[in-house]
Amino acid sequence: MANNTERYIWNLVDTNGQLVSLVHRPRLATDDIASLRIAALLDVGVALVPQEFVNSALQAARLQRLLPHLAKKAGLVHAIFPTRRGMVPAVRHLLDALVAGYENLHLNPRKSGATEPAC
Fold this sequence. Notes:
- The protein is built from 3 helices and 5 strands; from the N terminus they run ββαβαβαβ.
- It is of the alpha+beta class.
- It has one domain.
- The strands form 2 sheets. Strands 2-1-4 form a 3-stranded antiparallel sheet, with no helix packed on it. Strands 3-5 form a two-stranded antiparallel ribbon.
- Strand 1 and strand 2 form a beta hairpin.
- The protein is elongated and about 50 Å long.
- The relative contact order is 0.20.
């Protein structure tokens, strides 16, 4: 559960790439995305989750997009592997797909499953 003395801030970006910080006081604090989705579906409050986790609920009007002009800034992803020598083709394809997917996310954050507030 949320600590009453802790300050919770969502750092989001608008359609112009400008940072917008929203201070909030959660009813529930967890690092489990599935729990956040369920809480939002049960009307506990607003959740900031990846779009992939709420697409079907948004399409079925069980959730609605809140603040559609704001999205979470894309982060960094590190892929760690022992060596390129002897790398199986499946690993190379996975790395290539990750690079392409994150490049697409960076270029089109609203079309690539960016994290957005939903309730």
